[in-house]
Specification:
alpha/beta; TIM Barrel; 5-stranded mixed sheet; 7 helices
Length: 241
């Protein structure tokens, strides 16, 4: 895997899973503009803001990112049967997708969208698990979550499925706090164009050299700190909304 903070020539540094204020599920302290600013500082070329249940992409925000040298691609983390799914290069219509049949219809009319299975085999009721396997044809890629240690890695089952189905994996930060935006990301060999980026991903498989994961294990302490901080933020949101 490439070293962090280095982007090989011809590659784009991409973050496809990041949250910002306006999220319908989690309390996020930073604004979309602040997220873009941080992405700029960290050398990102491509960013998708994937807020829960709502598309917060606007032309104004797209223009703001463009001035920073960042290609902003519309995104969302939506749900089917309570299971989280990432949609990249989508529009507001995806907010109405509630079943896998709905998703199939959406994809048929939005050929250039990218559907990613986030943290599919991690503990919790929000992860796809068996529903990923039974609906695998609807997914274009599988997330390699940042949330693992040197001794415990729930990404292993995702790796197995990706290899078996010849699907690419996408490393992401699932960023809820700007301090963690660079914790894990993906390098993609492509021109800086939304359609070309997505096409490159879709034509890739697990071992394709055009899609490189930049990720390393983190400590149990850091994982606990990330989770605890977000839980406290969400509690405060409920208490003082």
């Amino acid at each position: 895997m490439p070293k962090k903070n280095t982007t090989p020539k011809g590659f784009l540094k991409c973050q496809f899973h990041a949250h910002a204020a306006g999220d319908a599920l989690d309390h996020i302290s930073h604004t979309p503009e602040e997220l873009v600013d941080e992405a700029k500082k960290l050398g990102y070329n491509v960013l998708s803001i994937t807020s829960h249940r709502t598309v917060i992409f606007t032309k104004e925000l797209e223009s703001y990112a463009k001035k920073k040298g960042i290609l902003l691609i519309p995104g969302i983390e939506f749900e089917i049967n309570g299971k989280h799914i990432l949609g990249i290069n989508i529009d507001k219509k995806i907010e109405k997708v509630k079943t896998f049949k709905d998703l199939e219809k959406y994809k048929s009319s939005h050929k250039n969208c990218l559907i990613i299975a986030p943290h599919p085999f991690f503990p919790g009721s929000m992860t796809l698990k068996k529903e990923l396997i039974s609906n695998i044809k609807l997914f274009d890629a599988i997330e390699y979550s940042f949330c693992y240690t040197s001794t415990k890695n729930y990404n292993k089952d995702a790796i197995s499925i990706a290899k078996k189905q010849k699907l690419p994996m996408i490393a992401t930060a699932d960023c809820h706090d700007l301090k963690n935006l660079d914790i894990s990301y993906t390098l993609i060999k492509s021109q800086k164009n939304t359609i070309k980026i997505i096409d490159t991903i879709k034509k890739s498989s697990f071992s394709d050299k055009k899609v490189k994961l930049v990720t390393t294990p983190i400590s149990y302490f850091r994982i606990g700190k990330i989770m605890a901080k977000q839980e406290i933020k969400n509690l405060m949101k409920k208490l003082f909304k």
